[in-house]
Structures are given as C-alpha cells and as structure tokens.
Write a structure and sequence with these properties.
Radius of gyration: 13 Å
Shape: globular
Number of domains: 1
Strand content: 15-25%
Domain Dinitrogenase iron-molybdenum cofactor biosynthesis: 13-104
Protein name: Dinitrogenase iron-molybdenum cofactor
InterPro entries: Di-Nase_FeMo-co_biosynth, DiNase_FeMo-co_biosyn_sf, MTH1175_dom
Distance between the termini: 35 Å
CATH topology: Nucleotidyltransferase, domain 5
Order of helices and strands: EEEHEHEH
Largest sheet: 5 strands, mixed
C-alpha cells in the first residue's frame, strides 16, 4: 500500500505539515517495502486559490491509497474522495511517527473536511 504524508521536509524524520494544499512536501511511502520518495508541492505554496484541489490532483498522480495530513478543506477532500484516497488526520510528530500510528490503526479515517473553504 502506498500512502502520502504532508511534510515540512523530504525525509521520514521531517515534521508533519498540518496544511494540505500548501504543505511543502508530500512524502510518499510504500508500507510494504518501506521505500519512500519526497514530492515537492512548491507550485501550490503561493497559489492565490485552488491549492487544495491542485495538491489533491498531485497526490492522486502518486497512486496512493491514503493521505495523512493535519487539515483538509472541502474541495480538496471531495477531490481526494473522488480519486479513492482515504484521508486520515494526524499531525503530532514526524512522518515516521504518524506512519507508525497509521500502521497500528491509531488514526481515524476522516468522514469530511475539517476546515472551511478559504474561498466561500
């Protein structure tokens, strides 16, 4: 299974970024092999609008089954759901720490966005 974690850096030791659309990086991890890669989200850091949807499309292109992040707006959440990507909220610690929480079933699957749209 491949999952993505929003991150402030490029490694498993990086802190989880609580933002989704404007996270600096997505660390994509294969939970079967432990292999991972960092995917830059630089194009969305200063986007005027649409950062969440564009980030969701980028995560979808990584062919992940799940995303761990701190916050996700309604448009990005719907885009992720349409791509079949389950969203989990969990931001305390490093990418490696939330990955372990995920593997142990300690993160709850989100049923909806947890922040309002910025462009209501």
């Amino acid at each position: 299974m491949k999952i993505a974690v929003t991150s402030q850096g490029k490694t498993l030791e990086s802190k989880v970024d609580p933002r989704f659309g404007r996270a600096g990086w997505f660390v994509v991890i294969d939970t079967n092999t432990g292999d991972y890669k960092a995917v830059s989200n630089e194009q969305n850091l200063n986007a005027n609008q649409g950062a969440g949807i564009q980030a969701a499309e980028q995560v979808s292109r990584q062919e992940v089954s799940a995303l761990i992040t701190g916050n996700c707006g309604p448009k990005a959440f719907r885009t992720l759901m349409a791509a079949g990507i389950k969203v989990y909220y969990g931001t305390d610690g490093t990418v490696a720490e939330v990955l372990e929480q995920f593997k142990k079933g300690k993160l709850s699957k989100a049923s909806d966005a947890n922040v309002d749209s910025h462009w209501v």
